[in-house]
Structure formats: C-alpha cells, structure tokens
Amino acid sequence: MENRRAKIKKLFLGVNGTDGVIVRVLIYALLLGIGFVYIYPVLYMISSSFQSLPDLLNSSVIWIPSELYLENYRRSLQVLNFLPTLWQTFIVAVIPAVIQAFVASVVGYGFARFEFRGKKVMLALVLATFIIPPQVLVIPRYILFHNLGMLGSIMAYILPATFGQGLQSAIFILIFYQTFKTIPAALEEAAQLDGAGFFKIFYKIAIPMGSAAYIVSFIFSFVWYWNETQLAAIYFGNQLTTLPLQLQSFVSQFEMMFTHTTTTAPAININEGIEMAGTLLTILPLLVIYFILQRWFVESVDRSGITGE
Quick one: 23 and 81 in the same domain? Predict the structure, then answer.
C-alpha cells in the first residue's frame, strides 16, 4: 500500500528533482498563457491586415478573411514610402549600433583590465548615466548639434555613440565589463610574454571571447535605434525619416493621399485593416532579423549571463 502511494506521489508530484504530472501541467499552462499574451496581438494584426472593409464589418468573420485581400498592403506601402524609408531606417539603426557596440567594448575592456586612480568612481559615474532620462539631454544636445551643423543627418546619432553616450550605452559597457572580467588573466599574460601589445591582445583574445556580448549589444542597440521616434523627430527633422516615424503620421499621410476624390480614383477612408497592414510592415523587418539571428541571439544571452536584460 505504501509503495503504491509512493508511486502515485512520484507520478503526480515528482521526486528527487524530477517533475511530476501536476508540476508539468502547471508549467506548460503558464508557458502557454504567457505565449498567448505575446502572440495574440501579432496574430490579430496579421488577420485584420488581410481583411477587406466588408470583412471587418461582418461580425461572422473573426480570424479567417473571406478572401486574401492585399489592397491594404498596397496602400500602406505607398503611404510609408516603404523601400526608401526602409533603407534610411537600416542606415539610422545599423551604423550607430555597430559603433556603440565597439566603443562600449573598448570602454568595458579598459575598466575590466586596467587599474588606475579613480577607476571605481568613473565606472560608477558611467553606469549612473543609465538612470538619466534621455529627455533631460535633448535641449543641450540639440543646441550642440545645431552649432556643429549636424541636425538633419545621422551624425546626431553617430557622435554620441562614438563617445560612449549612445542609447543606453551604460548597459553595454557593464555587459562588456562583466564579460571581460571573466577572461583568465593568464591568457593575456601569455600573450604579453610572446610580445603582443594591448591592442593585439584586445583584437586576438578579448574580441573573440566576447563575441556573445557583441551580438547581444548589437541586437539590443539595433532595436532601440530602430524604434526611437522622439529623438529622431527632433534631430533629423525632414531630412531623414524612419518607418516608426512614418507610422506615427500614417493616418494623416493616408488622408492626404486617398481621402480626396479625383478624376482617376474615388476617395478611400482609412480603416483598421489598413492601419494593421502599416503597423505590420513597420515591425516586419525586425521580426525577419530576429528569426534569422535567433539561434545566435539565444546562445549569446546564455553565454553572457544577462537573461534579465
């Protein structure tokens, strides 16, 4: 009788570190619930973007459209001026992200490997910049960029990234600091005995061993620069634009292009399907990039130990 109870307890509750049926059901239910919260908006967006106006007004059409309606995407591509805007967005996001990742690695390596007076104070001040809201620095930087003639160009992003003051640079400096601290000092000492200087050690040892931190830093930087709209609107003006900026003015741009009757085309009013198509086109490049890089991204987060970021 006792053996039977022990077997039932082991089956449902588990024992010695193994999960029982109840524990597994609870874990899977929690994961499914969390996954549903994240996936539902995307699925709803995709479904609505392929629905025509009659489908949107028809209460019997919920998830599957009555036809594959692509007109929403055609109009959204026109409003977003998609390909030129996509190219500008990639430039605005990739170049500062690459520079920021490299500069943060150099600063992090310096703090991790060199001892100098005031090191702890300087590191604390660098990390303290993370808690300063970017909005506080908008006016001083705007005046600086205006005096330097950088407004309306990507240099408004490149200059802060070059000096370790890009978007959330303090996080990446901390990531590289922690990563380089874990590199055995014996490797660098052996390289020095072989005649390697500090730059060669950094290039041959630190960079390869910190590849996980580079990937994580680049991806996070890329996404943050891609999604930034407030600073982009202030610094770039009308000279540069991005897909998120175009999405902000999507309704007004659509009304200017389609809501007036002409001799060649009737007036078209914006609806939820068109808005969802425009939103999906804006986030689609990020989704594609993530699906391509997800294996390296997950491995890098695992190796760098920053799962909480």
Answer: no
Residue 155 φ/ψ, nearest 5 degrees? -60, -25
**Does residue 283 share a domain with residue 201?**
yes
Q: What's the CA gap between 76 and 86, in Å, rounded?
A: 13
Looking at the structure of the chain, the number of domains it has is 2
State residue 198's pLDDT score: 79
Closest CA to 271 of 85, 81, 69: 69
The pLDDT tens digits for 48-87 are 889 888 888 887 878 888 888 888 999 999 999 999 999 9
d(CA 235, CA 59): 45
Are the CB atoms for 162 and 156 separated by under 8 Å? no
> Average pLDDT for residues 135-141, to the nearest whole number?
85
30 and 170 co-located in one domain: no
Domain co-membership, 22 together with 94: no
> In terms of residue numbers, what domain contains 42?
2-49
C-alpha 200/C-alpha 197 separation (Å) is 5
